[in-house]
Design goal:
Length: about 325
């Protein structure tokens, strides 16, 4: 394990905010987990590039969106967490019904902006409580749409601070995944939408909002879908079938409302949350011979419980 970053090198001279020993539980949905050695909020893309070029190669870097699909482990993160935020939240209408949006923009605001321009195709984003950068990384999708359907191109900055422009093919999208290097940071996306009726667009977004309210614990400390749906199955049905709905370890619970969601009912540790999910995963493997794939990203050093061998769905 590396030493705390502050002890082994001086921090780069950046325009943005640098914080040592930054709490991550305050800025992620689950509200659990230990601190990061460093939290960096770049002022702009040049600042981000400068930071990446300056910090030693061996310091791990992790990009945080708004932490809606993330479980930070209790040990925290020995490295630098980068959060894009407001300076990267710009939106612009381009020619040809295209939108340029920053990697730090919220999905909901992007959907609203598209609606204001009378553009359809981004309504599904209104149901995903993340950022555009997170949506690119996770190929976020809901209600029949996903990022890969509307993406024209994305800009990514690599760990060495080099800028890449990727088209949709190069994003290598699959179900809730983009097969690009883990440490690339998406700073911008161009989306292709179509002209639509503002009223109709708003009504789709209203339907999405009420459907989510009914079916998901959106007001809880959660992390969205815990496991990806294995081919031919729904993760929640498998979890339900093994009697894990409502299962609790400490203050961590599998949601009664939607059993592919984990809940911190108040004061849970990341270990409890991971353990209750692993228990459901163990039972699904035992009874159905399917090893569920974690969709929630886990950050930090705590070793995960030993996994049994099996086919990874
Ligand atoms: C109540 C609830 C409902 C949800 N419903 C859905 C749904 O219907 N469909 C769906 O797809 N998801 C859903 N999610 C999950 C989550 O909202 C999405 O995965 C979202 O895209 C994550 O975005 P984020 O900004 O919060 O990313 P984070 O959770 O912060 O990070 C997730 C991953 O994205 C990476 N990442 C974040 N920003 C960047 C960036 N700029 N560049 C590179 N990598 C980056 C992180 O490193 C990490 O690997 C839901 C979550 C919640 C809490």
């Amino acid at each position: 394990m590396i030493q705390p970053v502050g002890d082994i090198f001086s921090l780069p001279e950046v325009k943005g905010q640098l914080q040592k020993g930054a709490a991550l539980d305050k800025i992620t949905w689950f509200k659990v987990g230990g601190p990061a050695d460093i939290l960096f909020k770049p002022a702009d893309e040049a600042d981000l590039i400068l930071f990446l070029k300056d910090i030693p190669e061996e310091i791990p870097v992790f990009t945080l969106g708004i932490g809606s699909n993330l479980l930070v482990r209790d040990s925290g993160f020995r490295g630098a967490v980068i959060r894009l935020g407001k300076p990267f939240a710009g939106m612009e209408l381009l020619d040809g019904d295209r939108l340029k949006v920053g990697g730090g923009a919220l999905d909901l605001y992007t959907a609203r902006f598209a609606a204001e321009q009378g553009l359809t195709g981004a309504e599904f984003l209104s149901g995903i409580p993340g950022s555009i950068g997170g949506a690119l990384r996770m190929n976020a999708g809901a209600y029949g749409g996903e990022m890969k359907d509307i993406l024209v191109s994305a800009v990514a900055i690599d760990r060495q601070g080099n800028r890449h422009e990727l088209d949709r093919e190069q994003m290598k999208f699959s179900y809730r995944h983009s097969d690009t290097p883990d440490d690339w940071i998406f700073t911008e996306a161009v989306l292709q939408l179509q002209p639509g009726e503002p009223e109709a667009i708003r009504s789709v977004m209203d339907d999405i909002a009420s459907s989510r309210e009914e079916s998901q614990p959106i007001r809880s400390r959660t992390g969205g879908s815990t496991f990806a749906n294995p081919p031919g199955h729904k993760a929640w049905e498998l979890i339900d079938a093994v009697g894990a709905r409502g299962l609790q370890i400490g203050a961590a619970q599998i949601s009664e409302k939607h059993c592919n969601f984990l809940i911190n009912t108040g004061g849970a540790t990341a270990e409890d949350i991971e353990a209750v999910a692993e228990e459901a995963r163990r039972r699904v493997f035992r009874d159905h011979d399917i090893l569920l794939r974690w969709e929630i990203v886990r950050l930090g050093d705590t070793p995960a419980p030993v996994q049994k061998e099996g086919k990874v769905a």
